[in-house]
Amino acid sequence: MKGVIGMDDTVNGALPAGAPAGADRPCEDGTAGSEWRRLSPLTVQAGVLCITLFFMLPALGGAGITAFFGVFWPWGALILLAGLLLSAVISVSDVFRYRLTRYRVTAERMEMRSGVIARSHRSLPRDRIRTVDVATPLWARPFGLCRVTVGSGQGGDAGDELKLEVVSAEEGRRLRRELLRRSPGAPAAAGARPEDTAQDTAGEPGEGEPTVLAEVSPRWYRYGALSWGPMALGYGALAALLGTAAQIIGDFASRLFAPIGRGLYEFATSAALVAVPSVLLGVIAFGSAVALAVHVEAWWGYRLTREPDGTLLVRRGLLNLSSVSIEERRLRGVELCEYLPLRWFGAASVAAVASGLGENEQSKGLVAKRTLSPDMPRAEAARTAREVLPGAVFPELTGHPRTALRRRLVRAAVAAVLLTAAVGAPLWLIPFVPAGVAAGGTAAAAALFAPLCAAYAVGAYRGLGHGLDRRLLYLRGGMAARSTVALKRDAVIGWTVTRSPLQRRAGLSTLGATVAADSGVHRARDIGHSQGLALADEAVPGLLTPFLLRN
Amino acid sequence: MTTREAARPATDLRLRPPRHRVERRAIALWTLRALIGTALTALPTAAAAITLGLFDVVPWLVLILWAVTAAAGAIGLAVTAVMPTWRYRVHRWEVTDEAVYTASGWLWQEWRIAPLSRIQTVDTDRGPLQRAFGLSSLTVTTASAAGPLKVDGLDAELASDLAVRLSEATQAVPGDAT
């Protein structure tokens, strides 16, 4: 796909950015331009401005401080110079990037040329395009710009995407409309004209209004305080802050304020009953506040719509706007995620099982592309899932055999013993801890860990389940991260059955339904061997039948 | 695809093993591979132990290193003794008009089924070791991110024939097999 293809004449002509579609090779429908386009010319202005602000403000600050303290003046000048130089270099490279980046959308493919030193020419067949994301980072908002990421995600390979950074918001909307414009039922195969599939008139492009499937309610934001991603960020920020503070105190203050510090320490130890809970409370309050803020920023104005062109569109964001389109044709199923602290409060969220969402790319930010909704009340989440994938009713599921519970209890026992040993062993090994204390500590640890592990095992077992209805296969699993996935039965493109030695003895197996999505395999862990095969055989009739023995 | 079985069979279901075994030569290949693996895991600690022993420093560390070497060697040799024949009993494959069916593994075993219509690419690989035994492995990729189906230890000619046959079968199906 990559590699330089022969130079195209149109590249050399100085095109005005956002030029109307070319006339030399019009498509049947007359909208698919085949001319090379540039990024928005504002790319340069916005880039220069932001970079200059980013580097020059601190440089000015630094220079001001040095001047204020009467430091030898060339030092301040040096700081300013360095800031200027950095801004200039990055701005110039940005200008080059703008001048050397071209893209075009033809009837068959989307192409992009870029690279200042190493030129690259990448092209993506249009029938492989799965997603078009339009994101508006905070710095691009005043300029009305956006970043467009076009993904193919072939076989879960996240490397195959084209990123346009940045184009005008209108161009972003146009690209999304054009790249995803396909009648919902129409096959991507060449030759299938939109007119031929006119039976699905509701899906005609450009007509009809988007249907709103879910819309944010302010009451949902409170779940953010206990949501995994925001919580990690919140407490991470707190840890970083405390670390920095400790370092600063360690570096400077300890010498100057040692008496004050000692006094504080004595006060803290004498008032431990008050100090410890209040510190804990402070930690929780700060962590939750940051988590809430992050969550609100991510999900502000959330709206999930079904667009007339047969795509699902997730729009969200307070400062950084983001919108992700998922082609419904590529939707293999839908997942109802009930993660632990929030499950106790009756919350759940919805995610898509689809291809081309680049799920294996970890550094995509707080919210994975496949996420279709924030945490919301479970009933609302179930309703949203049903709207996204009609027929996904999430019925009562069949549990797995009792031997699966026994396996989990055995694991829990092992875990409890190990945890107790981890607490108890140091107590016994440290010489000056009296034996009574050590024994008491070990017993307390055992008394704490055993019920916890047992409860976890029982929860994990009760989480296991599977079911089948006319169109969908349901698989549920997980304790802390419990999720129920509803897969379209005709999207299952294979089965894997894995068995460990212990599973073979217990008559269990792990059944995996292979799906053409980024997740790859959805597993029913520790399902009864015969039960699992019957489920697989019924879910996809005929595929497994020739390889089954009945007796 | 629209027919549905009337009732879930109450009988006990099992997977029948795929029809064909891999080549018997594969046992020798796996044995050799396991031996090489054993040597590679045991050698670094042995080398470290010998060098330290030469200079006569930290005798207890030398002892530990020898113990680790012995343990790694013993485990490796045990695997070498058991794994190849066990694997030979498990590893099987079958290609019908509808699907590819493979069984692999030894302690942990895996059975995989993929319909021909969903196959995207078919490759054969021959490493230097495999070439020495006239063997080849067949890799069948589907549209899923779950990883390909692999048959290890096929006769080289049979593998390339199979690859051709499977490629033809998949090219008969339009679309990108998703």
Estimated structural class of chain A: alpha+beta
Give the name of the CATH architecture of the largest domain in chain B. Answer: Roll
Spatially, the strands of the biggest sheet of chain B line up as 2-3-4-5
By DSSP, the count of extended strands of chain A is: 21
Percentage of residues in helical conformation of chain A: 40-55%
Poorly predicted spans of chain B: 1-9
Number of helical regions of chain B = 4
Helicity level of chain B, as a percent range? Answer: 40-55%
Rg calculated over all Cα atoms of chain A: 29 Å
Pfam family, one (chain B): bPH_2
Organism (chain B): Nocardiopsis composta
Protein name (chain B): YdbS-like PH domain-containing protein
Transmembrane segments (chain B): 26-54, 60-83
Describe the fold and architecture.
- The complex is a heterodimer of chains A (551) and B (178).
- In chain A, the strands form four sheets. A seven-stranded antiparallel beta sheet of chain A has the order 7-6-5-11-10-9-8, with helices on both faces. Chain A has a six-stranded antiparallel beta sheet with strand order 14-13-12-17-16-15, with helices on both faces.
- Helix content of chain A is 42%, strand content 23%.
- Chain A starts with 8 loop residues before the first helix and ends with a strand.
- Chain A has helices spanning 9-12, 42-68, 73-100, 169-179, 228-256, 258-270, 272-299, 340-343, 378-388, 402-429, 435-463, 501-506, 529-539; strands spanning 37-38, 102-105, 109-114, 120-125, 131-136, 145-151, 161-168, 211-215, 303-306, 311-316, 321-327, 331-339, 347-354, 376-377, 465-468, 472-477, 481-488, 492-499, 508-515, 521-528, 548-550.
- Chain A is built from 13 helices and 21 strands.
- Among the domains of chain A are: 219-299; 402-463, no CATH class; 471-551, no CATH class.
- Chain A is α+β, with helices and mostly antiparallel strands and 551 residues long.
- Chain B is built from four helices and eight strands; from the N terminus they run ββααββββαββα.
- In chain B, the strands form two sheets. Chain B has a four-stranded antiparallel beta sheet. A three-stranded antiparallel beta sheet of chain B has the order 6-7-8.
- Chain B is α+β, with helices and mostly antiparallel strands and 178 residues long.
- Chain B has two domains: 21-88, no CATH class; 92-171, PH-domain like (Roll), CATH 2.30.29.
- In chain B, 48% of the residues lie in helices and 25% in strands.
- Chain B has helices at residues 25-55, 59-90, 128-133, 156-171, and strands at residues 13-15, 20-21, 92-95, 99-105, 109-115, 119-125, 135-142, 149-155.
- Classes of the chains: A alpha+beta (551), B alpha+beta (178).
- At the A-B interface, strand 18, strand 19, helix 13 and strand 21 of A face strand 1, strand 4 and strand 5 of B.
- Chain B: Keywords: Membrane, Transmembrane, Transmembrane helix.
- Chain B: Residues 88-163 form the YdbS-like PH domain.
- Chain B: It holds the Pfam family bPH_2.
- Chain B: This is YdbS-like PH domain-containing protein.
